[in-house]
Design brief:
The protein is an alpha+beta fold. It has 10 helices and 9 strands.
C-alpha cells in the first residue's frame, strides 16, 4: 500500500492536505493531491519497467517543444521525472489549466475545438521517431480471440454468485460472439497503404481540458503508438463523439481545416478499426482476469448494441 503523503515529499516539502481518486482512468492509478501551495496529480504506474514511462515523458517533452500544451511531469531534485519506490513507479503532474467536459456533454463548438487541436497534434508529431514509442498490431487473430472469449466466460460462470453486472456482461459476450461469427473479414494489412506516424493513442474528452470552448491542455500520453492519422480520427469519432452526426461533422470539418483527410482514408481506417473492436476483449480481461474493477464503468447496461461497423455506416451516410 503506497503512502501518498510520503511520496509527495520526494517532490515538495509542503504537506498533503487531501487525496482523492478521480472518476476517470482505468489503466494506471491516479490520486489528486491538494497542498497549501498547489494541486497535483500523482500517477501510480502499473508498468513493471521504466521504458514505457520514459517513452511517455520523452514524447511529452517533444510535444511541448512543438507548442502543444501537453502537461509535463514535474522533476525530482535529481532532475529525473520518475520515482521508483518498492518496485513501483510514480510521477507527479501539475493540475492542467482549464476545465473538463463530462462524458456525453460535448457541444459542437467543443467537438470542433477537438478536431482542430487533433490536427495540430498530428502535425506536431509527424516527424517524431516511430521507434521511440511502443508498437501495436492493428490486425486480429480470430482463433486467439475465441480462446480468450471462452476463458473469460468460464471465469464468469465459475463465480459463486453472478450479480446483475455479471449477467449483463455474459449477454455482451454472447453478442460479441455473434458479431465475430457474422462480421465480414477485413485485411488490416491494407492500412500499410496509409502513411503511419506517432499518435496520441487515447484522444478523448477525458484527456483534454478546455477554456472558452478551446483545448487548453492534453494529458495521458502513455498510450501513444504508431498508426495512420485516420485511425485516431475514427477512434475519436467512436469513443468521444459516439458517432453523433452533428458532433462528428463539426470535428471533421475543423480537423480538415488543419490537415487533409480523404474519405477513402477514413473508410479504410473505419473498416479495420471496426474489426479490431469486435475482437477487442481487453475490458473483460481487465475485470475478470486482472481484477481491475475500475473498467466496469465502461460496460454499463444500455450500451448501444449495434456494431462499430453498423454505426460507422450510418454516420458516413449523414456526413
Amino acid at each position: 500500500m503506497f503512502d501518498a503523503a510520503d511520496l509527495l515529499k520526494a517532490w515538495t516539502p509542503f504537506p498533503l492536505l487531501s487525496s482523492t481518486i478521480p472518476s476517470t482512468g482505468t489503466i494506471h492509478q491516479t490520486r489528486l493531491l491538494k497542498t497549501a501551495r498547489g494541486d497535483y496529480a500523482l500517477r501510480i504506474y502499473r508498468y513493471i519497467d521504466r521504458w514505457p514511462i520514459e517513452c511517455e515523458h520523452a514524447l511529452i517533452a517533444y510535444a511541448r517543444k512543438q507548442t502543444i500544451p501537453a502537461v509535463a511531469p514535474l522533476p525530482l531534485p535529481s532532475g529525473e521525472t520518475i520515482l521508483e519506490r518498492d518496485g513501483r513507479f510514480y510521477s507527479l503532474f501539475p493540475i492542467a489549466v482549464g476545465y473538463q467536459v463530462p462524458r456525453g456533454e460535448l457541444t459542437t463548438e467543443q467537438a470542433a475545438a477537438m478536431g482542430s487541436f487533433l490536427s495540430e497534434v498530428h502535425h506536431a508529431l509527424r516527424n517524431y521517431p516511430q521507434s521511440r514509442v511502443p508498437q501495436r498490431t492493428l490486425t486480429v487473430d480470430p482463433t486467439n480471440t475465441m480462446l480468450k472469449l471462452d476463458r473469460i466466460e468460464a471465469v464468469i460462470r465459475s463465480r459463486p454468485k453472478l450479480d446483475e453486472m455479471d449477467q449483463h456482461l455474459l449477454e455482451r459476450l454472447k453478442l460479441k460472439r455473434n458479431q465475430l461469427s457474422t462480421s465480414p473479414s477485413v485485411d488490416a494489412n491494407n492500412l500499410s497503404t496509409l502513411e503511419h506516424q506517432v499518435i496520441h493513442g487515447d484522444y478523448q474528452e477525458t484527456n483534454l481540458f478546455f477554456e472558452n470552448d478551446g483545448v487548453s491542455a492534453i494529458i495521458d500520453w502513455d498510450q501513444a503508438y504508431t498508426a495512420p492519422r485516420a485511425w485516431e480520427v475514427v477512434r475519436t469519432l467512436h469513443l468521444a463523439l459516439k458517432f453523433d452526426a452533428d458532433l462528428c461533422r463539426a470535428f471533421l470539418d475543423a480537423y480538415r481545416e488543419g490537415l487533409p483527410l480523404p474519405i477513402a482514408d477514413l473508410e479504410l481506417a473505419a473498416a479495420c478499426y471496426a474489426q479490431k473492436r469486435v475482437h477487442d476483449l481487453w475490458m473483460y480481461e481487465a475485470i475478470y482476469l486482472e481484477g481491475n474493477d475500475r473498467v466496469r464503468t465502461f460496460l454499463q447496461p444500455g450500451t448501444n448494441s449495434l456494431s462499430v461497423a453498423e454505426r460507422w455506416i450510418t454516420l458516413r451516410d449523414s456526413l
